[in-house]
Amino acid sequence: QVQLVESGGGLVQAGDSLKLSCAASGRTISSYTMAWFRQAPGKERECVAAIRRSGGRTYYADSVKGRFTFSRDNGKNAVYLQMDSLKPEDTAVYYCAATSTLVLGAALFRDLEYGLWGQGTQVTVSS
Question: What is the residue-wise DSSP string for 55-109?
């Protein structure tokens, strides 16, 4: 069974950058579909970025496109979310998610597609 552990969250000011890490253990995640979700207080969980199991193509929510970069390091069995030009509305708990199934298109952004989740890391952006 794969276990996911996020790290890298913190308190930053608007315009700053943060890099979140998601380290996997138990199995290699190189062939897993991976995603980063976030949930702000009082809001639904939303997917901000996903990477396909095959080919490594990345997808982003419109709200973060051009500011966030999702990457995978198979050698370290980890994925990362580089977040630049952070805004107060990016404040949320960020979760790493994974599935061994091939997920395509809009389904990449649906949380029900992912059966493996980390514990989350808090990101707070002050104005």
Answer: TT-EEE-TTTTTTEEEEEETTTTEEEEEE-S--GGG-EEEEEEEESS---GGGGG
pLDDT, tens only, 41-69: 999 999 999 998 876 789 999 999 999 99
Following CA atoms 107, 111, 115, 121 in sequence, which dihedral angle do they give, to the nearest 10 degrees? 130
> What letter does residue 30 receive in the DSSP assignment?
T
Neighbours of 57 (CB within 10 A): 9
How far, in Å, CA of 97 to CA of 27, rounded?
14
Query: In the structure encoding, which two tokens stand for residue 74, read together?
Result: 């198979």
